[in-house]
Amino acid sequence: MSIRTRFFAAIYDRQMRKVEKGGLTEMRSGLLAQAAGTVLEIGGGTGANLCHYGPQVTSLTVTEPNPSMVKRLERRAQAADAAVLVIRAPAEDLPFETGAFDTVVSTLVLCGVDDQPRAVREIRRVLRPGGHLLFLEHVRAADEKAARKQDRLNWLNRAVVLCDCNRPTVATLEDGGFRISTLAHTELPKAPSFVRPTVVGSAVAPVAGVPVAAVDPSVVTTR
Fold this sequence. Notes:
By secondary structure, this protein is of the alpha/beta class.
């Protein structure tokens, strides 16, 4: 583990405090109200999502690859109202059986995984057919001028917060076989302009023998 990743874990909560107060905490709460059944959260970080899971969640497993983050995550998990299983593992190599979960949660994670398509394939694998992925991710801007700015400044984003600000995450989910069932385009509050473009939504894992477009006929998209 590098000094850089240890330092990032140590300052993460302080670094995100203004963003959380500016609206990110509310965004987390609204998204996680949809989590139900057996739930896997990837890249749990310091555990910012733990307080937002409701009684409809029957079991909660959280993975995190950064050892320093895991220590902080475990402390919050121990203080949580319900039992939480914390496992150190990357999103690209999830140590679970195929179809093990009803819901997978990813919040500000797919921007920082080493291999985004592989992580999406793993999420799809561990979800049961028809299971849901709930996601909140900052992404590449739809506006080309803004996207070019992201490309120019991505080196800075990687240096400061260890992730890419210009990833086409929704397209990666669709290429990975998911059907986007809800999608809201918004902004990461109180963040630098080049990392603000954000998507919040849900996607459905494919069911064998059922066309992907027919898995969930009621699509609501807000922008």
